[in-house]
Design brief:
175 residues; Aminopeptidase; seven-stranded mixed beta sheet; 25% strand; binds coenzyme A
């Protein structure tokens, strides 16, 4: 009986395929700045946030500025910052960590945490990858902001739970 218990405990701790450390989503701290600036430059080469902007975001949204840490590498591989009224201000995943469900995990956690059940974001019209990402999560195009980035329009994408969606003439499924 004791042996069975020990074997069960071994598999429970190590996992059937070996030890699989869990990724962690935690609050941003200023010591993360260097790594975030790197992710920012890799992710938004045309207009990366500066150190000052990231610090301002931290001061404004200390509870909703999150980083995703890969515990195997003990390294931050993504971040998300959003406001309590559901404005997704920035989201980026390091290029080498993309297409592993990291951004989806971050945004789904934010959707659950938000007191208001809606979320919106601005996306460069040419950012097909981000638009495909938001489409996967059920966002719809709700409008356009002309010249939002100086050199390009933004599409405003928004998400609401299916039950609270009302038809809007401006809205459309992402294509
Ligand atoms: C957009 C971004 C955040 C997606 O991050 P990610 O961790 O790679 O995304 P996920 O792995 O969670 O992808 C979830 C879904 O989004 C869609 N998607 C993500 N990347 C895609 C790609 N390159 N092509 C097509 N669809 C894609 C897929 O439907 C994917 O689900 P699947 O892998 O089961 O098919 C990432 O590409 C990024 O940081 N881009 C640069 C910064 C940026 O554009 N940020 C958003 C600005 S608003």
């Amino acid at each position: 009986m004791l042996i069975c218990l020990l074997i069960w405990a071994w598999f429970a701790i190590m996992g059937i395929g070996g030890f699989t450390p869990q990724p962690m989503i935690r609050l941003f701290v200023p010591a993360d700045l260097g790594r975030l600036l790197h992710i920012e430059q890799q992710s938004f080469p045309k207009s990366p946030y500066s150190r000052t902007t990231l610090i301002q975001l931290f001061l404004l949204y200390p509870e909703t500025f999150w980083v995703y840490v890969d515990s195997t590498k003990e390294e931050i591989c993504a971040y998300l910052v959003f406001s309590g009224d559901g404005h997704l201000i920035s989201l980026a995943v390091h290029p080498s960590e993309r297409r592993r469900g990291i951004a989806e995990a971050l945004v789904r956690k934010a959707m659950k945490a938000l007191p208001v059940k809606r979320m919106r974001a601005e996306v460069r019209r040419s950012n097909r990858v981000a638009l495909a990402f938001y489409q996967k999560l059920g966002f719809q195009v709700a409008g356009v902001i002309r010249n939002y980035y100086g050199d390009e329009d933004a599409l405003v994408v928004q998400w609401k739970p299916v039950s609270s969606r009302e038809p809007s003439p401006a809205s459309g499924v992402l294509s």
